[in-house]
Amino acid sequence: MLHLGRNASRVSPREASARTLSKSRALSLGAAGLVVWFGLYSQLGPIAGWLTYSLLGLSPGSHLASSVDFFLTDVPKIFLLLGGIIPLVHVVRSYFPPERVKRVVAGKGEFVGTVLAALLGTVTPFCSCSAVPMFIGFVESGLPLGVTFGFLIASPVVNEVALVLLAGLFGWKIALLYVGLGLVVAVVGGVVIGRLHLESQVEEYVYQIKLGEQVGVRPALAQRVTEAATYTKDILRRVSLWVLGGIVFGAAIHGYAPTGFVAHYAGRGNPLAVPLVVIIAIPLYSNAAGTIPIVQALIQKGLPMGTTLAFMMAITAISTPEMIILRRVIKPKLIAVFIGVVTMAIILMGYVFNAVL
After folding, report:
1. Which residue in 63, 116, 196, 271 has a CA-CA distance of 20 to 30 Å to 86?
2. How far does the chain reach from its first CA to its final CA, in angstroms?
3. Residue of 212, 185, 221, 203 whose CA lies nearest to 306
4. Is 298 within the bounds of a domain?
């Protein structure tokens, strides 16, 4: 009997040399890209100030100048952050395909499985649209419903793009608080939904779907980098309008929204500020990256961090468009439970972070 598996994995010296050169070239291009990236990022503020006050001649301190300066600073800043982190995350994620994710979560207890699913959700940058196929795969593979919801909540809420953007704009302390808050919401939501035993509220066709395992040859680093570049272009094309819309809205808040008005209705003086911003977020929709400019502007206007993070998480986790998407796979009763559990968790954590920050 021939053992083809081991022989098929061997490569000739010429192929090995070519792979080494490709890897070296990819690493060299990556290092050069980092140097250019940091050089550009460090000069964003001065360039935006020169464009606003010297080239356009706007008066310092005016509402329009403040908004324009905010816009001209944040557009390149956020797209540089997106362009830097998305390819890196894609390369890392290429080592953890969906079938491996299911194998990691399967066979664990309910709580441990939910925690693992939530952690996996944080490193898979899915919006609600792309998380639905993963949800179907988890249910079809026999994972508990609470575990699948732990992933479904964490995936859009805790977004690694948002993590890096928050770190770049507010520092790593706030970014890590955001991750911790999102994980707590995902785990609590998953455990509660699991304990309610609502498997009958999943559409029947979901249990009948059979997803095949995809097995292939592990690509070389150079191929992963090339695929990451293509993926980054596609993601930027998909999210650019959301990000620009968020920046425009954030710039308007930064320049024109009166601080007193914001502080009165959503500041520390209003005990109902957290549920108020969550209610406001429900009819809206954006990915986590698109909410960052709005978050930045609201914080600069005096909103507490917990209130702001509650708004950010609600707009990505329980928005009306997401519920419409989820209706494809789960029934109204489970959607209502999902909304209620996640909303209460977000509100509670918003109050907690307002108390400690």
Report:
1. 116
2. 67
3. 185
4. yes
